[in-house]
């Protein structure tokens, strides 16, 4: 069965380096911030399409964390072909913290398989490992896949890939790719997140879940149609 990943072969801006321009240095650790974290829910549905002229293949929401110490930049239909992009940065001096992009993908329903859900998850693994990861780390050094795992996202099953690479302008980066097979239709979404390890020192699964981009990806929710 063929997996169609919209725009992926043309994407040049998946990685953090495209937006991670450093204007200075700052003593910052995301996990040491003591301020209150709130969330802003972004709804992508027919109303969004009518307002912005951007087709929404399948309606969904994401919950984006908001902190006083962090600047959020939301970009609908960013350069490179993604559906939407959220970038998190420090104030002044401005430094890149994390970003996450939502990309459209079509993952067949695999109705003829003995276990359709597992077959789709296996397709998602191949999609992330063989097609998305090479594009996401293209042009960067020391790229390596650390783990590929099945996870539960908002009550349904998905896959994530964790990797590392080095950005010459920033330093060590963590890459997290997630695939979210839509339980009701082939039209689905995946996410591509880049994390600046100097400012977000992820060391295990718990700290990864506390990263801003992981909170966005883990909360992606398909809406009933």
Question: What is the secondary structure topology, with strand pairs?
Answer:
Elements: E1 38-44, H1 46-52, E2 60-66, E3 71-76, E4 84-89, E5 96-106, H2 116-136, E6 141-153, E7 156-167, E8 171-180, E9 187-196, H3 205-210, H4 212-218, E10 221-222
Antiparallel strand pairs: 1-2, 2-10, 3-4, 4-5, 5-9, 6-7, 7-8, 8-9
Main traits of this protein?
225 residues, 7-stranded antiparallel beta sheet, disordered N terminus, 3-stranded antiparallel beta sheet, globular, alpha+beta, 4 helices
Textual characterization of the structure:
The chain is α+β, with helices and mostly antiparallel strands and 225 residues long. The protein contains 4 helices and 10 strands; from the N terminus they run βαββββαββββααβ. It has helices spanning 46-52, 116-136, 205-210, 212-218, and strands at 38-44, 60-66, 71-76, 84-89, 96-106, 141-153, 156-167, 171-180, 187-196, 221-222. It has a 7-stranded antiparallel β-sheet with strand order 3-4-5-9-8-7-6, sandwiched between helices. A 3-stranded antiparallel β-sheet has the order 1-2-10. The two termini are 26 Å apart.
